[in-house]
Please model this.
Amino acid sequence: MQLSSQLGCQLPVTRCKRAQSAARPVSRQTVTVRATVEAAEASGEVSIRRRPPLGNDTQPCGPAMGYKVGNLPDINQPINILEEIVWYKAKEIESFREKQPLPMLQALARQAPPARDFKAAILAKAKETGKPGLIAEVKKASPSKGVIQPNFDPVRIAAAYEAGGAACLSVLTDEKFFQGSFDNLAKIKAAGVSCPLLCKEFIVEAYQIFKARVSGADAVLLIAAVLPNQDLAYFMKACKALGMCCLIEVHTEAELARVLQLEGLEHHLLGINNRDLGTFKVDLALTQRIMESPAGQEVQRRGILMVGESGIFTPDDVAFCQAAGVGAILVGESLVKQGDPTAGVKQLLSLA
Ligand SMILES: O=C(O)c1ccccc1NCC(=O)[C@H](O)[C@H](O)COP(=O)(O)O
Model:
């Protein structure tokens, strides 16, 4: 594979630089000056820090964007759940890599059946139903709600979503915080479900993209709060080489403005996640606000497929997101907790 030598480097350049700068001592004053909510929101830059490679005991992990120092008892603690998840990923990836080194995954990826067209499946379903294309999420648990579906059978749920009219499926693979797994993804793929599959993971290394592909994913999630544009571009390139599409997720208008500078977005999807990662509150009005902003208008002008994510429970919520201008919705909790997910999908999309 052409890209294998480039992708053999596990740390994109920007991440190496961040790790170095994290090693410098951080004064309280620096934190006070730089770490304001306004600065984080206005910049649209990455708000999630990486854990220093040698651990927080030996290296401070840097000022926390978005938090006033008075609100943060210890800058070496994660500022929110997303940062906590991302810090844990380093350990998790290391343990995966011990069992399956990258060259092994790359060889398996070369033998895998080709990825299916995630974006085309959404557009086709939206045309057929007149509703936003549904990405239905196979989600057992979450940090905000704990266990959502105790009677969790990923293959049964995936097949039921497809029968109800979902365009694509999202499969949570994070084990520690969502009780998901890459095995669930592989099982759903092996069961012959024909909806294209999104690997819902917290990607920080190209290794995870290969693991997703080998497990049957057709698309992966990339989170703008975690990844600077240089990393996003690098991972988009890796996905393209593997025939996969990306769902690039933003939480703010400024993040959207930043990711709009990336090339080739027309082949991918952008998502607005309505969940505040500090409070866990979901607010669909965020999708509306961002779609009405100058960056949102640019998305519409350029015909980029937009996804409304999180907190969608009723047909009215679907109509609200559609009116805001999104062409797809990503729904987990409200569908997965239903006894009959097929009926749940039909009801949500008001399909006969
Ligand atoms: O779901 C959470 O509690 C959560 C917490 C921290 C980071 C991400 C989280 N969820 C991931 C998602 O984006 C949702 O699973 C997805 O958008 C579906 O949301 P919902 O329909 O509200 O289950």
About this structure: The chain has two domains: 4-88, 108-348. The first strand starts at residue 133 and ends at 138. Strands lie at 133-138, 141-142, 146-147, 168-172, 197-200, 219-223, 245-250, 269-273, 305-309, 328-331.
